Task: structure prediction
Amino acid sequence: MDLGERLLNGDRRACARLISMLENNDLDAVNIIKRLYKHSGNAYVIGVTGAPGSGKSTLTDKLAKEFRKRGKKIGILAIDPTSPFTGGAILGDRIRMNDLTLDKNVFIRSMGTRGSLGGMSRATWGAVKVLDIFGMDYIFIETVGVGQSEVDIVKIADTVLMVMVPNLGDDIQAIKAGIMEIADVFAINKSDLEGADRTKLEIEMNLDLSEKKDYRPPVVKVSASKNQDIDKLVDKLIEHRTYLEETGKIVERRKKNIKLEIMKLAEEEFLKLVMNKAHEENMFDKLVNDVILKELDPYTAKDMIMNFIKG
Amino acid sequence: MDRPIRVLVAKPGLDGHDRGAKVIARALRDAGMEVIYTGLRQTPEQIVQAAIQEDVDVVAMSILSGAHNHLFPKVVNLLREEGVDDVLVIGGGVIPDDDIPKLKEAGIEEIFTPGTSTHDVVEYIKKNIKR
Result:
């Protein structure tokens, strides 16, 4: 049996190996996904994002348990940063999820960002497909701890859950562009701490200013470590899913994301093609030198590469 | 293939001291490896399932409580039962010299005792991974 058939048969090692191969740009794995792609489409993808230390892992653990109670199979992709200097990484999200390790209906995989900057790794898109084909009902993607502009999660998730904590900043933070705009559901974690009501109020006031739409992101106070109100949060996540499905917006959203994915894949391949060609002729190093010596500028260097490619 | 080596660093058993495991995790990270750190008080079953899901090249365990003769071989046996034969299993911690031959016989391929330089651990892993 090849890895693809083993994946369809629920073989966890095959699932794990395929994700590794995709992380390592192994074409055999890509070919298997091509063959099995028609088996995907059952899974619903929830992105969990928020600042470092906001409790994303602990919350993901509790959310997964609540979904398990409701009979769902769960995949979790937990992303942590890769060192830009050594390529190494400490992937530590599993520490918060140890209770789930032995549940046969849960599959957890840690991934390093390996150079990607948007809060996820390049292989996350592929890993979602593997877990989907593997038969998971819900896939959680826990992003790296984000700052203000790592918004790639919205390009893959059906629902984005933004994890906030009390007292991280004043209300000006809430009206800035970027990360706050992509949330479909807000969770205020650690809401047993003082300031949770004010944080909720600030988010609500900011939402009041948004253009009136037929969906307004709910703001739910929870405490992941104390397991408080997790069921309420799960209800809100499912309400968002229902909203997308009933209005047909899920199709729109997925279409937009598939378009982005294809563009990104083509972009990578295209760039590789161009740079290989430029390197082949030693052109690239020469251009870099000329720019350093101020004999050229970066824009002209780019024009020269493009002219060279066009022939 | 140019890919990072993936290592599961785990603390089986009940002792609550993971300073050493963290130092090793950090050294492996700095050597360019992806370290999946699972934290304290892991059962052998949890370690094996995590190793499978994470598709690691190495399982590195640390024990200070004295339970190594029981827990280390158990992890090796569970891996074998799951059909995993391409993972390097190593151990570290406070382990008497007399116990080391038995542990190696049981399939723990190397034992690192206090005083080992992290450099030696990194080199050992690089030389001995199985795929």
